[in-house]
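Record type: monomer structure entry
Structure origin: computed from sequence
Chain ID: A
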Amino acid sequence: MMRRLAPAVTDAKRSHPASSWQPDHDHFRRRVEERLRDDGCARPEFVAAVLEVRARLGLDVAGFAELLRVDRSVVDEAEAGCPARAVVLALARLAPDIDWPALIRGPARPALRRASDRATLEQR
């Protein structure tokens, strides 16, 4: 019985209205960047772009590190806003549509981890 259902399931998935749906990666990146900025991330544009590329590829951190040929801790650091040169070069090869050098130019904003830090900065 399962053999007869498999083609039917495959056909149903193919003809489902959502089968052609693709996520809006630009929207994802803008929203993540906004939240990271609100949370006080040092390089929100860079981190959002890294997360977008990883999401596009559908990889977890370990798989992404393997693809980039770096240690997992290097990916963790990049996703925290501390890009290593090896990661930036690998990302430029993976996603040439993103201007990686522009995302890491200039000094990083100071990371504000606590709400009290953000409140102090806003009072200035």
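Annotation 1: The longest helix spans residues 2-15.
Annotation 2: Confidence is low (pLDDT under 50) at residues 113-118.
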